[in-house]
Amino acid sequence: MTLQAVAAARDREDPAATLPSEVVNQAPSLGQSRRLRRVAQAAAETWNLELTRLRQLSDGWNTTYRADLVNRRRIAIRVGRPHGRPAPEQRAEIAWLNLLAESDIPVIRPIVHPAGQMPLEVAVSGVPGSRLVAGFEWVEGAPAAAHLDQARARAMGTLCGALHAHSLAHPDPELDAALPRLTTLIDRKESALLDHLADEPAPRRRVFEEFISRSEALLDRFADAPLLRCHADLHPWNVLRTRRGRYTVIDFDDSAMTWPAYDLGIAKFYLHVARTKAEDTPSERKLIWRGFCEGYAQSRPLSEDPRAIDAFVIVRQLVLLDHLLGDPRPHLQAIAPGYLDRAETRLHQWLEQLT
Predict the structure, then answer these.
(1) What is the predicted pLDDT for the residue at 85?
(2) Containing structural domain, residue 99
(3) For the chain, which end, N or C, has fewer CB atoms within 10 Å of the first or last residue's CB respectively?
(4) Cα separation of 78 and 126, whole Å?
């Protein structure tokens, strides 16, 4: 399955469930698509790559293309959004990927080219400013989300534990200093969520304020805890299973320095979202998480407090909701009201069910 099929698989789930970084297949205008296509083509030319086909796969936080080359090779080209992840952070992301690849941890690999360091800064006519572009080797596989079960969750956990263990075993102060910190909730002075809640009925405002206060208290308790290099977006759409049964982690563009418990809370959030079909029960979702934890323990002892992991699940939901409500793109604003309703329902359920 190609990355386009991964995108389609996400859409078959709750398209809004994994916002913001998993908003995919949202069609830009024809003019915008053509302009961004020229950005990807310019990057390929700089890398001395001869294209036979360039196919747009997604238009979320980044715009991603599959590039078919004359030698029958494929790569993925990622074109960043304006004011997206800055170049130093992207260079740190790529440096970490190269370190992981050297350790034979199955992750997506940046392409090697003679034209200098990635990301490239590309400017073309018709596109305001410049865009940062990165290239990656193609990974052919099906997302773990396509048939998520305890075995696939266990494979995800093994990979998560391997990433954490690698970060502990390979300290790199310069690399760690370049990655962003994922240690905050929302900015109360500029929060789209709080601005939106000001117009909501008082009972809803009180519910979300309670969740926000609890989450802020959690982050305060972790303020002095050591940070670790983490994927920070490890969900079943970002783990691909190849035809040979090998699992590979992709999409490191949210990688950050954070607490392992937060990284695990992010994974648990998505595993629960991916198992919210009507026929699923809380006990079935607990089995999925148990599989993840068993896999994690194969790579590294799971010493994080389960209650802290559960609390970080709620933090993740609030952060995603704040991002969604603050994104001005029309297709996201159109789904925001329904997503707010589902988020409130989930928050109540998780307080009762997460253990």
Answers:
(1) 93
(2) 3-139
(3) C
(4) 19
> What are the start-end ranges of the E strands in the chain?
51-59, 62-69, 74-80, 120-122, 131-137, 142-143, 228-230, 239-241, 247-249, 256-258
pLDDT per residue as tens digits for the range 314-326: 999 999 999 999 9
Same domain as 209, residue 244: yes
* Residue 20, preceding peptide bond in cis (omega within 30° of 0): yes
Cα–Cα dist 350/345, whole Å: 9
What confidence score (pLDDT) does residue 351 get? Answer: 73
pTM: 0.89
- Please indicate, yes or no, whether residues 239 and 227 belong to a single structural domain of this protein: yes
pLDDT on residue 29: 55
> Do residues 86 and 200 share a domain?
no
Q: How far apart are CA 17 and CA 321, in angstroms?
A: 10
Long-range contacts of 179-182 (CB under 8 A, 24+ apart): 179/89, 179/92, 179/93, 179/96, 179/229, 179/255, 179/256, 179/257, 180/85, 180/89, 180/256, 180/257, 181/227, 181/256, 181/257, 181/258, 182/230, 182/232, 182/256, 182/257, 182/258, 182/262
Which residue type sits at 200? E
Give the model's pLDDT for residue 355: 46
The verdict on 130 and 171 lying in the same domain is no
CA distances from 133 to 69, 120, 136, 190 (A): 17, 5, 10, 29
Tell me: do 214 and 335 sit in the same domain. Answer: yes
What residue ranges of the chain have pLDDT lower than 70? 1-32, 114-116, 274-280, 353-355
At residue 243, the pLDDT reads 87
